[in-house]
Amino acid sequence: MPDPLVATDLALERGGRRLFEGLAFRVEAGGALCLVGPNGSGKSSLLRLLAGLLDPAAGRVTGGGVRAYMGHEVALKPTRPLGAELGFWAGLDDGGARLASAMAAMNVAGVAGVPCRHLSSGQRRRASLARVLAAGADCWLLDEPAQGLDAASLGALAAAMAAHRAGGGMVVAAVHGDIGLAAPQTLALG
Question: Do 143 and 61 belong to one domain?
Answer without folding.
Answer: yes
